[in-house]
Amino acid sequence: MAEAERVVRRHHDMGGLPAGPVEPVEHAHAPWEKKVDAILRLLVGKGVMTLDELRRGIEELGPGAYDELAYFERWISSISNILLEKGVIEVAELGAAIEAARARREATP
Amino acid sequence: MSSGGHHAHPPKQPDIEDGPYSWHMALTDAVADLLLAKGVITGEELRRTLETIDAATPARGARLVARAWCDPAFRTRLLEDVNAAAAELGIDAGAIPILAVENTPELHNVIVCTLCSCYPRYLLGAAPDWYKSRAYRSRVVREPRAVLAEFGLELPDHVRIEVHDSTAELRYMVLPLRPPGSEGLAEEALAALVTRDCLIGTAVPRVPAES
User: The complex's ipTM?
Assistant: First the structure.
């Protein structure tokens, strides 16, 4: 690989790079994954955010998170960051809502 | 946060297969709850969107292919404008343009999104995990013949391979060749031969051997 190519590439830009065999894995999406997808579709449909913003948010997660997080974990991380950035939601209320979601979950076995 | 009352939450779905309630699952519920409470989205919209997601399967793409095999005029329209041709069959192909790339005896097409995971979801449903994997995205543009062989698709040397890298503005579907032995089949039976991987280009339709 040319040195110039090494310099300009970001971690998500992997076309043509060496990699191992393609593992033919797939899974039926869990309800929470479909929910992430639905949230995104609605936000894009309503003009609250764009697909390009989703991608930018995913790319900004950095190489570590990009490779460690599952696919829809990247999506919801990006979506929540973009919503915070735009002021649609605020950090404090998001923290409270996460706690509320966990408490609700614990209350319903 | 303001409360929309318990009815603002969409009906709880079975989470049996989800395993433990992860931080990202909680984040997902939290974001949804806030958007519902603020009126950015409604529970009804969320329900309908989930239904739309479930309704999109590769059977849609397969119907387009089978119709194109049976109707040359439709094939021409499909190659000109997939979204409009899909609408003829009552199929919503989404707002993003889709281009059908046609296989010939000398040319085989395969699709990828090297930068992320763009995929003609309205026609094929959710992308399989391997389509979004580092290995597929990295290698299929460099050594498609080797990658296709890993999927069990061995193409003769004289068949050229074109790899189409999808973007947020343009997506692709493969229009495969009608397989030998399918001459007598009706459109519905033809559609059943067209699997998701045939529409991605990692497989080709085959007529099952007579048992």
Answer: 0.89
Work out the pLDDT band at A3, boundaries 50, 70, 90: low
Q: Does B130 touch chain A (CB under 8 A)?
A: yes
Q: To which CATH superfamily is domain A29-107 assigned?
A: Nitrile hydratase, beta subunit (1.10.472.20)
Q: Architecture of B56-200 per CATH? A: Alpha-Beta Complex (3.90)
In whole angstroms, what is the distance from residue B13 CA to residue A33 CA? 12
**Which residues of chain B neighbour A86 with C-beta distances below 8 Å?**
none
For B33, the enclosing helix (H) or strand (E) is helix B23-37
Q: Which residue among B22, B52, B138 places its CB closest to the CB of A14?
A: B138
A7-11, B115-119, B159-163: least confidently modelled range? A7-11
pLDDT of residue B211: 55
- Residue scoring higher pLDDT (A62 or B16): A62
Q: Where are the domains of chain A?
A: 29-107
Least CA distance to B22: which residue of chain A?
A102
Helical residues (DSSP H) of chain B, grouped into ranges: 23-37, 43-55, 58-70, 72-80, 82-88, 121-124, 134-139, 144-150, 187-193, 196-200
| Domain positions in chain B | 21-55, 56-200
Q: Could A97 and B25 be called an inter-chain contact, meaning their C-beta atoms sit closer than 8 Å? A: no
Number of A to B CB contacts under 8 A, please give it.
Answer: 167
